[in-house]
Write a structure and sequence with these properties.
Strands 1-3-4-5-2 form a five-stranded mixed β-sheet. The chain has one domain: Roll (Archaeosine Trna-guanine Transglycosylase, Chain: A, domain 4), CATH 2.30.130. The protein is built from two helices and five strands; from the N terminus they run βαβββαβ. It is 20% helix and 40% strand. The radius of gyration is 13 Å and the shape is globular. The chain is of the alpha+beta class.
Length: 102
Amino acid sequence: MSARPLFIPLKARHFDAFKSGEKTVEFRAWGPRWNVGTCPVGREVILSRGYGKADRLRGVVIGYEEGKACTLSPQHQADVLNCYGLTDIIICAIHIEIQEAA
């Protein structure tokens, strides 16, 4: 039995970047919800613009990495700082390949 698709709600600008192909990696703070066990390579993903059902993309996890946010590029560090308020945290980089609109 396979796991249910991983549901990832996104802000509009991040959703649009995935939809256009500009974005392929989602960063989340490491923890019980976001870790190597919950984001294994091959797991199906549903990306959603917010929590609504109108705009969704279906994809698959094609890579996963963990590391300190302070080692990311300056732009990604700024995004982490904006979202979490600090960069001294462990971040999961979930590499996603979009397959179709859900």
